[in-house]
Specification:
It is a single chain. The chain has about 290 residues and is mostly beta strands. It has 2 domains: about 70 residues, no CATH class; about 210 residues, Fumarylacetoacetase-like, C-terminal domain (Fumarylacetoacetate hydrolase, domain 2), CATH 3.90.850.10. The protein has 6 helices and 18 strands. Strands 1, 2, 3, 4, 5, 6, 7, 8, 10, 11, 13 and 16 form a 12-stranded mixed sheet that branches. A hairpin with a 2-residue loop joins β1 and β2. The protein is globular, with a radius of gyration of 18 Å. The model has no long low-confidence stretch (mean pLDDT about 95).
Length: about 290
């Protein structure tokens, strides 16, 4: 199933959560109260984690007539992100001169590399990625599959990790490469306002084969990234087991699994995002998000 967070033209201040039809032409609102709906699809995830039936579905809207928000408009916690998790991307990043996480010859990490993005960086498909004038001009794209955690857990074994997955969504891990290099860490250059396009909705894990799906990124129609999640260095169960070893995971937590080869920094010269560009990320089983750059 697909769940989305949205607004209608007649009540622009009211956030709603609903079920997207299989043909993606309509959406039916669920009867969450305002406070619950404000958290977006997290309201669905938390209710199901608690064993509570979802509220009754009500009015149906044409999908073309509503404004889709990010499925998690403001996540409750920072988004967990994984760096250098595709073999070819790890190599291209190591060769770019911007990788402060590895020594020469140490291109492929031996353990998952985690960082986070702040909740306020999240925007919806269609909203603009903003290049901060006078702050950075080295803005890059990173198409990623994001895992949505479905229950509270800690110390999860890899063999049990997929039982903790509620579903998936799409994330574009937009990055200021110069900040990433200058500050010798990834948090700030990954967390600028608008640097986490997400959506267009969240899908349950039966709708997307997260461990075997295709991730693609297009800039102005040019395919820059195209890889399968079968190429992940550290698979989804390993990522969940690693985080949960010392950190309790909660329903609605999000783990972005890393980006494939083909990011802008990998080209010579680099192909950074420019004003007027359009970035589209597609993942089979989920859909696509597209954002202009201003």
């Amino acid at each position: 199933m697909k769940f989305a967070t949205f607004k209608t033209k007649h009540a622009a201040a009211e956030i709603l959560v609903g079920i997207v039809s299989d043909n993606e032409l309509s959406i039916q609102a669920l009867g969450f109260d305002g406070a619950q709906a404000a958290s977006g699809v997290a309201a669905v995830v938390r209710a199901q984690a608690a064993g509570i039936s979802l509220p009754k579905a009500g009015q149906r809207y044409d999908l073309s007539a509503v404004e889709l928000l990010a499925p998690f408009p403001r996540p409750a916690r920072n988004i967990f992100c994984v760096g250098k998790n595709y073999f070819d991307h790890a190599k291209e990043f190591a060769q770019s001169g911007f990788d402060s996480s590895a020594k020469p010859g140490d291109d492929i990490p031996t353990d998952p590399i985690f960082f986070t993005k702040v909740p306020e960086s999240v925007i919806a498909s269609g909203q603009a990625i903003v290049i901060p004038q006078g702050v950075s001009e080295a803005i890059d794209y990173e198409a990623e599959l994001a895992v949505i955690i479905g229950k509270q857990a800690k110390g999860i074994a890899e063999a049990d990790a997929m039982d903790c997955v509620w579903g998936y969504t799409i994330v574009n891990d937009v990055t200021a490469r110069d900040w990433q290099n200058r500050h010798k860490q990834w948090f700030m250059g990954k967390s600028f306002d608008t640097f986490c396009p997400m959506g267009p909705w969240a899908v349950t894990k039966d709708a997307c084969r997260g461990e075997q799906t295709q991730v693609r990124c297009f800039v102005n129609g040019e395919c820059r990234q195209n890889a399968s999640t079968t190429d992940l260095i550290f698979k989804i169960p390993k990522l969940i087991a690693t985080v949960s070893a010392g950190i309790t995971l909660y329903p609605g937590d999000i783990i972005a699994t890393g980006t494939p080869v083909g990011v802008g920094i990998g080209f010579k010269p680099p192909k950074y995002l420019q004003r007027g560009d359009r970035v589209r990320v597609e993942i089979d089983g989920i859909g696509a998000i597209e954002n202009p750059v201003i």
